[in-house]
Design goal:
Radius of gyration: 23 Å
Number of domains: 2
Distance between the termini: 33 Å
Shape: elongated
Largest sheet: 6 strands, antiparallel
Order of helices and strands: HHHHHHHEEEEEEEEEE
Structural class: alpha+beta
Helix content: 40-55%
Strand content: 15-25%
Bound molecules: FE2/S2 (inorganic) cluster
Strand order of the largest sheet: 1-10-9-4-3-2
Number of helices: 7
Length: 293
């Protein structure tokens, strides 16, 4: 029963088109800051191989949860310090969250907008709680902390929906199955240097190009948000995503520049009987999670 109610609530948020206008305004406001080339690489978690936001979330939630415990024990000094620590650590957490959110669309954007709204209200409540505690109004400070925790909980629930139901932050090829046997792909003459060519590996779209060392093949679906990579460009030895400009090294598919944090899935290629053949390079097919095209 509770599960059904929760699903009803999240699907209502996903369809809440009235959120589009304020979300677009916020996106226009934050994009020039969070998408700055010098910062988005780190904010998106490119150096650590997955989004940074889920890692940073632990700091404010940990501080504020602990503050709750110290409030219950009557240690106002410790609670006050932890409330302040939560506020300080919430700022980079919010920054990385806005960075991730700025690359979403549609239902993800709406849910993310509400997630950010809950957390901003929570942050405001904790700032007010800290001020109240500093002024000696402990009772009010505790009440505001409880309000903040309610906001964080609502925001966390929506954040979970973003990650686990809508897959924001997940490598878009995580569940993509493909052939581990050599499979016919294309005429090798169709693959030329300096161009990205789309191909089909038994239902799985690939992108190909020719390097001095030979032809290389990667998943055509950008690991970040799923852009068709064959519509991108080649620059400085990297293929550039057509949607958000992530750069993937053409030699091995690694991320040279975010916002993507996961590399492009690599495929092995060979020429046999005058035809280009490909197969999956890694052993992802051995995973036990669901697979599909
Ligand atoms: S879809 Fe975002 S960088 Fe490719």
């Amino acid at each position: 029963m509770l599960n059904k109610l929760m699903d009803l609530a999240t699907s209502s948020v996903e369809k809440a088109s009235f959120l589009d206008a304020p979300a677009a305004k916020l996106a226009a406001l934050v994009a020039p800051v969070v998408q700055r080339p010098a910062l988005r690489h780190v904010a998106s978690g490119t150096p650590i191989g997955h989004p940074l936001h889920p890692l940073l979330v632990a700091f404010p939630i940990g501080a504020w949860s602990s503050a709750l415990a110290f409030d219950a024990l009557g240690d106002d000094d410790a609670a006050s310090t932890l409330v302040a620590l939560g506020v300080v650590t919430a700022l980079p957490t919010m920054y990385t969250g806005l960075s991730d959110w700025s690359y979403t669309e549609g239902a993800e954007k709406r849910v993310g907008f509400l997630h950010a709204t809950f957390n901003t209200l929570a942050l405001s409540a904790y700032v007010a709680s800290w001020v109240a505690r500093r002024r000696g109004r402990r009772g009010l400070g505790v009440l505001l902390s409880l309000a903040g925790m309610a906001g964080v909980s609502g925001g966390g629930w929506l954040g979970g929906h973003l990650a686990y139901a809508l897959g924001v932050g997940v490598d878009t090829t995580a569940f993509q199955h493909s052939e581990s046997e050599w499979t016919d792909l294309a005429d090798p003459a169709e693959v030329v240097a300096g161009e990205l060519t789309g191909a089909d590996l038994d239902g799985v779209p690939l992108v190909l190009t020719r390097l001095p060392e030979g032809i290389v093949a990667y998943a055509d679906r950008c690991s970040h948000r799923g852009a068709p990579m064959h519509e991108g460009t080649i620059r400085d030895g990297c293929m550039i995503c057509p949607w958000h400009d992530s750069a993937f090294d053409l030699r091995d598919g690694s991320v040279a520049e975010g916002p993507a944090s996961r590399p492009q899935t690599t495929f092995e290629v060979r020429v046999a009987d005058g035809r280009l053949q490909a197969r999956r390079l890694d052993e992802r097919s051995l995973r036990t999670n669901p697979v599909g095209r």
